[in-house]
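@channel sequence for tomorrow's demo:
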Amino acid sequence: MRHALWFFVLVSSHGAAAEAPGARLETLKDALEYGLRHSPGMNSTDRARAVATLERKNALAKLLPAIDLSAKHGIQKSSPSTRTEPWYGELSASLTENLYDNGASLTELSIARLKEDLADVRFRKKRDRFLADTAKAWFQYLKAEESLRIQGEQLQLLRKQYAALSSDYRQGLKLRKDYVRFRTQVSRAEIQETNFRVAREEARNGLLKILGVAPESWNRTTVSVPSLPRAGKAEEDHEWKALMVENHWEWRIIRLQREIDEKEVNLEIRKFWPRATLSSGVKYSSADYLAPGASVKKNDRWDWNALLTLEYNFLDWGTRSRNVEIAREKQRISSNTLHDQALEAKTETESVVLQLLRLRKNYRSALDLRSLEESNTSMMETEYRQGRVAYLDLINSYQDLASARRAYVEAVYDLKQAALEYRYHEGTLYDSVFH
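structure tokens (generated this afternoon):
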């Protein structure tokens, strides 16, 4: 018993220690592909699309013939008795088809097809929105990583200068106030580095969250940081034209939803019409074949029918009228919502282009500023070694250079994010990323 207990403990410990493998994300495309596979939100949207497809198939199946099989076996008694044996058996097979029902089934099929198209558009909208948000989180992480690297280089440079100043101070070549003021610069840089490090971890956690990485795998998931790119030709030199709101995902949804609402109102109006139903069927059956001397073939029979049924409800106490009014009110409510969404889509498309043009201008300015600050810092270092400028001027030059480099990093990644946002509103993000 004791050996069995120890075996159980060892197996349990091994199972608890087993860890799910982490992900390795080396490029933006890797991150996007991983997110599409593991995001719970994308999985739910894909399942909603599958449900719409199944509902469309059900609506189509209503137009097809139905085959029913039935078998009954048991004991049957009646009073007064008309049977010599209590055993009863019956087999039947029937084929039925509803040939016409005032177009209700065709209208329902049309609605189901529109809903399937709507679910597909919503899936693609969700997919592109997910790609845009994931890319934004990816760039935020790279921006935080690059900013931390710049601050680390700045801190190392200050520490190097501080070590030289400390040596001069101990030799009596520098005043104490200069030494203390330089020390405060180093302390500030250390605090800033800590802040950038925290921001980097928060950006990484935000990226892993949106990708759907399991919490227990966060520490084992690696995100590679490529060298800082320049803004590509597509972002820097592309002629960003005004977006056509008709291509916006929301606008496509609006068109489909309006068609669905109109058909649902028509479906309710049809209930006012006299109902004509044309149906046909064939049935084969056999009963009482369990009785002595009986057989299935001896007692079988065939039935067929072709029926035209006319129905009209003269009095329903206003139920149909209210149902039509309910459908129309729902259509009006939906129309108001869709109108607001159309205005929002138009506003977004206009804003995206303006934002993109502004960020492209900022990028070019940041590129020039970085180049100027690099030249200025190089000149200040030369003049400092020659004793022409004070150390505080050199320190300010280092700080200005670090700020210019961070501004350039932000400009690069902000422009890339804006370009992806433009592709999202254009409806071409998925193709532009994967094709």
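heads up for whoever presents: The first helix runs from residue 2 to 17.
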